[in-house]
Write the structure tokens for this entry.
Amino acid sequence: MPTPTKGPRLGGSPTHERIMLNNLSQQLFEHKRITTTVTKAKRMRPVAERLITFAKKGDLNARRRVLRSIGNKSVVHELFTVIAPAMAERPGGYTRITKIGNRKGDNAPMAVIELVMEPVATAAAVSEATSVTEKAAAKEEAAAEKEAAPAAEETKAAAPAAAASSSDLPAGAHAATEDGEAPKGFEIKGNADSMKYHVPGSRWYANTQAEIWFDTKESAEAAGYAPAGGAAAQTISED
């Protein structure tokens, strides 16, 4: 007897094996999923998928070809009218095998083989869904920024006003300006929340909003401000 090309024979003659696989395929088309051994599921998969490929053609010659393998006309009708149209957009992979453990008794590995009837997500559909999601996210972000903008402007305007309204500025200090620029002769930034000062050229100088300006480090320290990051970090330049 000739050796089959896809694994060991399932017992008996080649004709017996062919009939067995055709019968399993018929059961699969009828019930949409069946439980069998892993070996039979793997051997039956190409047989069933080939029959589905014939059914997708839908012509009389394809129907006659399938009837040579499956004798139940009602199952063939189901294959051509229900299963094949559901697989029309699917280029392959019509079945799915899921292992479910070993069978009690002979400990044979078992699996469930089923038809994949879910709609195929085409590239156009995926692209459209991605575009809609991105537009929705951008719209939400723009709305959030629009809501946050007035609050940020009020906070920015209130900070200089609060600093300027303070009449009891320490010696060598200047109130924060509306444009955020350093007053002439006052280039050391002071932060009231952290009570730290930053000299020009230091690490955090550019990113720090001055709530008060000092002319020298001594003036800042006299007002109770400490060097940000330590004295070593604030010795770059005072010019």
